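Open question from group meeting: does this chain pack into something compact, or does most of it stay loose? Before anyone orders reagents, we agreed to write out a predicted structure and look at it together. Recording both the input and the output here so the notebook holds the full record.
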Amino acid sequence: MKPLLVIKTGTKIPSLADYPGDYDHWIAQAMGWPLQNTMSVDVQAGDPLPEPGAVAGVAITGSGSMVTEELTWMVRTAAWLKDTVDQGVSVLGICFGHQLLAWSLGGEVGYNPRGIEVGTTSITLDDAASTDPVFRGLPPRFPAQVSHSQSVLTLPPGAVRLGWSDMDEHQGFRFGEHAWGLQFHPEFDQEIVPHYVEYYRQELTRQQLGADALLQDVTATPESVRVLQQFGQRVAGREQNQPLTADD
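Structure tokens returned:
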């Protein structure tokens, strides 16, 4: 079976140094994908990307970088992503990965006009999510972990919005039949996200947002993990030549 490719665009913050794993490990584990069949490519470090046909599917991690920097490695990765989506390989972008994927497909990314969104938030699903292969079966509103200052301001042409939150209009989208973006972090749990609230504490104070209140509202987010699991199931099914649709 071909490996799952995890495109590593950043690393966890220093306060999580003693917490096991990093973005790529957390994604594979939450997805239920075997770590021994996961290929991690650090594009920030200049690692080459494989041919799209050599992988079963692709997940793109979060990052401390900003898509608006348009660094060389971002431009290179965005071009690869567009080609990969065009070839029908399943792709899932998370947070920065969601923004990079949207940008690669013609969307607009910039600083969230509502400010930093961090902690546990509520995702409200659009009607389209009920028949989406990756979002199907989720409740109309569910909690998810978030940590970002930039957002997808305009979706790529033809993309379908799947969910939103009070602070971000584009918490999830689908492009075509094989590409998804998630602004939220389904791989984060209630132990990880408080570190990101603390990371943003000073900036939150400047925005008149209380870090302590956000910390008190942190809760478990099991529903959001189902998005990762259903993406993994879809990738595995296609790799085994089993057709998967929204009705499966």
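Observations to bring back to the group:
Residues 130 and 166 are 20 Å apart (CA to CA).
Residues 240-248 have pLDDT under 50 and may be disordered.
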